[in-house]
Amino acid sequence: MVRGKRLVLEISNLRSAYGRIEVLRGISLQVRPNEIVALVGSNGAGKTTLLRALSGVQPAKGEISFLGERIDRLPPHRRVARGLVQSPEGRQIFGSLSVEDNLRLGGYLRKDKAISEDRDRIYDMFPVLKERRQALAGGLSGGQQQMLAIGRALMGKPKLLLLDEPSLGLSPLLVDQIIAAIADLRTKDIAVLLVEQNAVAALGIADRGYVMESGLIVHDGSAAALLADDRVKSAYLGIA
Amino acid sequence: MAEFFQFLVSGLTVGAVYALVALGFTLIYNASDVVNFAQGEFVMLGGMVTVFAHAAGVPLPLAAILAIVVAVIVGISLYWLAIAPARGASAVSLIIITIGASIFLRGVAQVVFDKQFHKLPSFSGDTPVQMMGAAVQPQSFWVIGGAATVVLLLYLFLERTLVGKAVLATSANRLAAKLVGINTATIMALSFGGSAAIGGIAGVLVTPITLTSYDVGTLLALKGFAAAMLGGMGNPFGALAGGLLLGLLEAFGAGLSQLHLQGRVRLHRHPRRAVRGAAGPVRRRAVERV
Ligand SMILES: Nc1ncnc2c1ncn2[C@@H]1O[C@H](COP(=O)(O)OP(=O)(O)OP(=O)(O)O)[C@@H](O)[C@H]1O
Ligand SMILES: [Mg+2]
Description:
The complex is a heterodimer. In chain A, the strands form two sheets. Chain A has a six-stranded mixed sheet, sandwiched between helices. Chain A is 36% helix and 26% strand. Chain A is of the alpha/beta class. Chain B has a single domain (2-249), classed as ABC transporter involved in vitamin B12 uptake, BtuC (Orthogonal Bundle). The longest helix of chain B has 31 residues, at 2-32. Chain B is globular, with a radius of gyration of 18 Å. Magnesium ion (MG) binds at residues 47-48, 89, 164 of chain A.
């Protein structure tokens, strides 16, 4: 497509509502190959709704193209099969299954033989998961559950990883660890759409960012430009 | 002692059937949140199809397999034709749908088969086995052993296969299951099919002892439901324990009071308990599960 490199994700005029209340009011955005894109905005802006719509677990109108093909009519599992994988808000791990089973199920649709190698790579990334691999996931601490949720999503071999508030409720040390792990995905040919309350940290590792407010994109630009923008700073980054 | 053992065996035999029905409830409930009151009709189909196929000259083992296949087809159709289109309906609406399906299946069975009671020959003859002073029907071993085998196979399927784990994952967290790429509709259809197979097997095993007719499912569904509630709806081990306990209570209750009113006594008591239960623990459980 454009400049020989097709977009990983292109959304245009996406709308979604809960009952009669419209929560996404015409969202358009793009993610390019190997890019980390931050999506920031205050509580209730519609970030989670947007990610849910992308994964197909929230009804929405509008166009979603993934790697050049329309996917907005596909059921959730067909989107995962194409490489659009999400680590959802609130972790949503399988609490009554073991850590190992959670990771295995992350690769549910995969037929290739590299599953156990990939699992070992997740264990290298988050060694504490390896120590607790036979434990029930519901018994993990919040931070460990978050690592598991990210690890499970990575097991799905994403081409685009949707991350919804991966640092929520974690200690500062863990936040740094998770953010570093996300920054590292760039080297693995995985594009990332990152939703974060911790907007400074998110923009710190992102290439570009979008600022969302009440179901609309109100600012966008390079991460550096957004971090420097006075309006963005005061309204969303908590920097005066 | 001999009497005690007699009651024990007959309680375990009936209890094993209740346990299978309760397990059927549990499997569907966990995967889809549906309380399927057509569960008893799967048992009825298992017995009736075997009886009629056998009467038509099909050898008993083949007739039994045919009956289980029919039950599975009915179970999967129930999901796709009645439950899946009502996606998003309230729990109560879904229960009403399954009650409707149960009435419908009974009506069809009445027309396709008849309104008589039917018996199947016992699989290993009718000569009682003497054990601990009691006379045990050989078919009891088939029922108890068959139920144990079903439970073991189900356990192995759920714990050792990826699709089984997908069933558990769908039960644990349906949203997350979708997000890892599990086609949850297929998994629910599978759980309806599996549940129907379990019911059908129960029907095949127990018909030589209890007889069958087009409407045996109603009472079995109520008892299986009571057993599932007793064990905590959604808990497979609880369902098994609840079923066996209910069977034992009936056997000892009827035996000790020397009243052979098993069916009638229960019929009066369970529907009310069942209804009360449905408003309580079921809802609470549904919310509790993570
Ligand atoms: N299941 C729901 N039913 C009705 N309204 C909902 C539902 N989920 C979210 N909303 C509403 O939709 C709006 C957007 O919610 P959403 O969760 O997408 O926001 P968000 O940007 O992810 O917020 P946060 O930063 O708090 O996670 C909010 O006003 C919220 O109240
Ligand atoms: Mg959110």
